[in-house]
Amino acid sequence: MAEAEAGSRRVGSSEGGGGKEKSLKDMGNEYFKEGNFLKAAALYTQAIKQDPNNSALYSNRAAAFLQLVKLNKALADAETTIQLSPEWEKGYFRKGCIFEGMERYDDALAAFQTALQFNPKSAEVSRKIKRISQLVKDKKRAQEVENLRSNVNMANNLDQLKIEMSKKCGSEEGWEEIFSFLVETMETAVKSWHETSKLDPRVYFLLDKEKTDTDKYAPAVNIDKAFESPHTHSNCFSFLRQYAEDSFSRAACLVTPKSIISYPQVWKGQGPRKWRHGQRDGFFVQFETAFLRKLWFIPSSNEQGQTLCRDPEVLDISAHEVLPRLYKERQSNS
Q1: pTM to 2 decimals?
Q2: In the structure, what pLDDT confidence band is assigned to residue 27 with cuts at 50, 70 and 90?
Q3: Torsion (CA) 154, 160, 165, 168 in degrees, nearest 10
Q4: CB 3.0 to 4.6 Å from 8: which of 23, 121, 261, 296, for a disulfide?
């Protein structure tokens, strides 16, 4: 708050005419305390005209302008305060508060640290440094989270799978298309989760462009009822396996949120050595081909008020499969 410093011209008189006159600065301070920052700034301006080298007046007017969100004017007054009294911590403190209002946290932190050099015992400045340091940290992490949410690249997490598919398939044509199908499906799921924190449980199929009757077979099948009971699970699996065969699909990718699975709860009874995610939210991605099966869990968390998917975690599909094998197993060309 504005400090009551002596030195401004005094005006008016107290009741009875015998009391001490109030200065323009004192009157400005009273209006500041009452929350009338516009009137306070006007009185400080009048006082500055009478005493243009009084750093306390510029400091007080900077505080009033800050409350009025006239940040550029406030910053100019803080700079003048520093010019007039370069070893007084208050000018740097004002500057720090204004930069904080501008959300220029690095600049605010530098200003507060300078203020602390001139008054190392100031608890007020120390609190500001602690607060701004946390804001800088939070802002940096918020930017990192936003970058991670905006730049989804699942291929970076599937390098080992790409090598494995290459070895299994050898010179066989088409495995690159299957890999791209998986990457696209996973990235679409992650982006949807980031936007809504939910997914529709589906199985996506990579259909054969030449053989599949696309009027009869769609590239995605909703399976929202599949995990309600062992009975619905079995019926769904039987349907999907027949669908995969009749549609001449080359690969399938199941995507389902963990939260909707009543059966089979593949994380139950596995122990922390096999299931390292506890009760964390997220979703499963199960990849199916005739020559390769893979399963991932993609955990999610909330950071800086944003939903963020973590890197996919490979699971042992023999222990955690969400659905049994969809394609009849065949040997690769390796």
Answers
A1: 0.67
A2: very high
A3: -170
A4: 23
